[in-house]
Specification:
The protein is an alpha+beta fold. The protein contains 7 helices and 19 strands.
């Protein structure tokens, strides 16, 4: 089952189950009043099915999809694919050994990526910083956890990155990663029980400029150097998330060093079992 947040043309915001090209609104109530409440349930899919018993459906094309997040923090993991390790080492000779060591270390790189107001949903703009000259998208399978740190679903994440800022000094990582409209999430959450086997989950990135593809690439979760459980376990150490948390798992698709995003580009990320997240790029 896929769960989406949406807004109708009259401004009504709700939660719905995606059924093909239709959206079945959920009849939220005092017990299950939000997407977070449903994800917190012992059986989210069963609860969602019960809340959609009215049979009403809306065309997906007739609603505005919102980022599938309420008050959760968004975190990210770095250097989890060989390609991302190589790219990070290319950014800075001074930092190369750090990235090489963290790839092989038991402790992963984990960092805060975004709070909800910095997140863009499907069709909403993502931003490149005005003070950066080398900017790239990072397509990432994103884990959705409830307050008990149980993996309840998956969504698509775009971990936007200013590579020249980070490459100048690894201590600038927060500025390279965290700013307004720095993270894309969506188009919905696929519950964990509805996802394909992990080694069959493919990820594809396509960047279009003036209608033409200027970069594309593919990878798969079978290339991920760490397990989901390993990443979740480290994130949960000495940490709590009162409304749940989302964790981007790193990228295995990195454009060449001579590529940078331009305002007006369209970034499409497709992940098996979920769908496609599309975001236009703006600056300023």
């Amino acid at each position: 089952m896929k769960l989406a947040k949406y807004e109708t043309n009259t401004g009504e915001v709700g939660v719905g189950a995606v059924v093909g090209e239709q959206l079945a609104p959920l009849a939220l109530n005092d017990e299950y009043a939000s997407l977070t409440d449903i994800l917190e349930a012992e059986a989210p899919g069963q609860i969602a099915s019960e809340l959609m018993s009215s049979g009403q459906q809306l065309p997906l094309a007739g609603v505005k999809l919102l980022p599938p997040i309420d008050a959760q923090e968004v975190w990210a993991a770095g250097v989890t694919y060989t390609r991302s390790k190589t790219a990070r080492m290319e950014e800075s000779e001074a930092a190369a050994s750090c990235y090489d060591r963290v790839y092989a270390s038991p402790r992963p790189e984990l960092f805060m990526k975004a709070t909800p107001h910095r997140v863009s949903g499907p069709g909403q703009a993502l931003r490149i910083r005005e003070d950066a000259e080398w900017n790239v998208p990072e397509p990432e399978l994103t884990l959705v956890m409830n307050t008990r740190m149980q993996l309840v679903g998956f969504t698509i994440g775009n971990d936007m990155s200013s590579r020249d800022i980070e490459g100048d000094n690894p201590l600038y990582l927060p500025q390279a990663k965290v700013y307004n409209q720095c993270a894309g999430l969506g188009p919905w959450i696929t519950l964990a029980t509805a996802m394909p086997p992990r080694n069959e989950i493919g990820i594809a990135l396509a960047i279009r400029r003036d209608g033409q593809v200027v970069f594309d690439g593919q990878t798969g979760i079978d290339q991920l150097a760490r397990t989901f459980e390993e990443l979740i376990g480290w994130l949960a150490r000495d940490n709590s998330f009162p409304t749940g948390v989302m964790l981007m798992t790193g990228t295995g698709i990195v454009p060449d060093s001579d590529f940078t995003l331009h305002p007006g580009d369209l970034v499409d990320i497709t992940i098996d079992g979920i769908g496609t997240l599309s975001n236009p790029i703006v600056q300023g």
